[in-house]
Specification:
By secondary structure, this protein is mainly alpha-helical. About 80% of the residues lie in helices and about 0% in strands. It contains 17 helices and no strands. The protein has helices at about 15-25, 35-55, 60-65, 70-75, 75-100, 100-120, 125-140, 145-155, 160-190, 190-210, 225-235, 240-265, 275-280, 285-295, 295-320, 325-355, 360-425. Helix 14 packs parallel to helix 16 (about 325-355). The radius of gyration is 21 Å and the shape is globular.
């Protein structure tokens, strides 16, 4: 990939007034020059991230069969990747504050796609889990850096829509990765399937680097641990940010649990679907693409908390519907779960970027860390619940997580009303 030409702006290079004016006047906006290139580049980054991160999820029954392990053990190929991302997202965000968003995103993708080409040759489950953990750690440079890049380069009114498009890329990556792996694995096995995903991710990474505009509003920060810890402490001390982090983790607990286990449910009786058809089930991710990209309009109509209530209610309805013994009803349940999850994620992640007035990469990194901890927890606990109580157990875990989302949103609503009453006194 070409070397980065990113030239960070140093603090004090221009007067505050002129810097503010330039930032307001030249930020990207829908229909303006560079916005489409930027949107498509980050869309491709989102595709590569989710395709790689969840490349083994639809293949878990086959991995279980080859290595002779249960669902709870095979699920570590997903949990290790998301766990690696959760652990490294904060350090990678610090590097992006110093060296630039585009530089870190490019390096992260380069390492992740290289590891992706090695994954098909893993000789054992342990080796596969280790490679997946390294891959997740490499991908940690993408999510927080991307949202920070958007917060700096896009006008505030267009931020929810822009982040929604990036999240939509996540959904397309998650969908295409699972659909492609399902059909390829049915013919040539899971190793060929993850190899194909690795090749697709390479193409996405190259196109991303060629298309993403050089940032104009990045201001280099410090790598001093004291400064970083102070920023993190300030974000964790903000009640609104804490609520948003918890909401992201809980939404992802539902999603991680459902999609880790659904392959086992659909390949077993009474459905007994072949691997290719099970992979095609993930076409419901297209619903997530739509719900994420339209999250801005949902917030415009219902407000942020109203949109979170709607997303949580939709997810809960899908979980309950998925308990049915009818395949069409199970699929409808997955549609509702997917639509609710991606809408809630887009609303919460964009709210983090809007709420943080400094250290945006760290604020986004903390959200992403919570989000992927939720994914790892959902994958592991969802699989354990499935082993203990079948699909009903997995749904029970999901409903508890949705109840947490609603409860936290209620607390936020009460806090906002209390602030309004104080303001009028």
């Amino acid at each position: 990939m070409p070397a980065s030409t990113e030239a960070p702006t140093r603090v004090g290079a221009v007067s505050p007034a002129s810097a503010t004016s330039a930032a307001v006047d030249s930020r990207l906006t829908p229909g303006g020059p560079g916005y489409r290139r930027m949107s498509f580049a980050l869309f491709l980054a989102g595709v590569a991230t989710f395709a790689l991160l969840y490349s083994t999820q639809a293949l878990l029954p086959l991995i279980s069969g080859e290595f002779g392990v249960a669902a709870s053990e095979a699920s570590w190929t997903v949990a290790a990747a998301t766990g690696g991302l959760a652990l490294f997202v904060l350090p990678m965000s610090a590097l992006s504050e110093r060296f630039g968003r585009r530089t870190v995103m490019t390096a992260s993708l380069a390492v992740a796609v290289t590891v992706g080409l090695l994954v098909p040759f893993a000789p054992s489950l342990t080796a596969l889990v280790v490679l997946r953990a390294v891959q997740g750690a490499a991908l940690a440079g993408l999510p927080a850096s991307a949202t920070a890049y958007l917060a700096e380069e896009v006008r505030p009114k267009a931020l929810v829509t822009a982040i929604g498009l990036f999240v939509a890329g996540n959904s397309v990556g998650g969908m295409s990765g699972r659909v492609i792996t399902g059909w390829v694995a049915q013919e040539w096995g899971w190793r060929a399937a993850v190899g194909v995903i690795g090749a697709i991710a390479v193409a996405c990474a190259v196109a991303f680097r060629l298309l993403l505009p050089a940032p104009k509003h990045f201001v280099a920060g410090s790598l001093r641990p004291r400064v970083l810890l102070g920023t993190v402490r300030a974000h964790l001390g903000d009640p609104l940010l804490r609520r948003l982090y918890a909401i992201g983790a809980l939404f992802m607990t539902v999603f991680g649990g459902v999609y880790t286990v659904i392959g086992y449910r659909l390949t077993e009786a009474p459905f007994s679907l072949p691997q290719g058809i099970v992979g095609s089930i993930f076409l419901v991710y297209l619903v997530g693409t739509v719900s994420a990209s339209t999250a801005g309009r949902l917030v415009g109509r219902l407000g942020r908390r109203g949109a979170l209530y709607a997303a949580g209610g939709t997810t809960a309805a899908g979980l309950l519907l998925s308990l049915a013994g009818s395949l069409p009803l199970v699929l409808l349940g997955l549609v509702l779960i997917t639509g609710g999850f991606f809408a809630g994620h887009a609303v919460a992640s964009s709210a983090v970027s809007k709420t943080a007035t400094h250290g945006r990469a760290q604020a986004s990194a903390l959200y992403q860390s919570a989000y992927y901890i939720g994914s790892s927890a959902g994958s592991t606990v969802g699989a354990l619940a499935f082993h203990a109580g079948g699909w009903t157990g997995t749904v029970g875990v999901g409903l508890l997580a949705v109840l947490g989302v609603v409860s936290i949103t209620v607390l936020g609503t009460r806090a906002a009303r209390a602030e309004q009453r104080l303001a009028t006194v």
